[in-house]
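Trying the structure run again after the queue cleared.
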Amino acid sequence: MNDNELRQAIALVDAYRERVEAMNRQVQVLRVSFDEVSLALESVKAFKDAKEGDEIMVPVGASCYIPVKVTGNRTVVTNIGSGISVQKTSDDSIEYLEANAAEINEALKKSVEALNDAQRNLAAMSETVQQEYEARRQQAGAQ
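Done. Tokens:
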């Protein structure tokens, strides 16, 4: 490997490292989103299954829950994106949340696969650069 090829390999290692960091952040965001949707789904299901007058715990974020008594009103205000919320039946809200969870889960799987590929590429290129450095060090020591 000549000096120019080594510089290109080092630049590629840096690019892979940046890609891995960005993909790690993306995976973390998707995991948080999936957890949030799953928690909402569980809450809506508990609301749907509760009888009027039952007390259920409703998550409000940051691992905090509020005990509330269930009324006869079985509608759920659901955010559908871009700051828009609509009133849905419990069943419609559950269906929407399940579809949303499936979509996020699929994106998460693809992101994890891409992250794993990028990590393998980073490891392989880093190994190549390290071997070249070691070869050059040994060559310099032999002279």
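The domain at 3-142 is CATH 1.10.287.370 (Helix Hairpins). Worth checking whether this holds up in the mutant runs.
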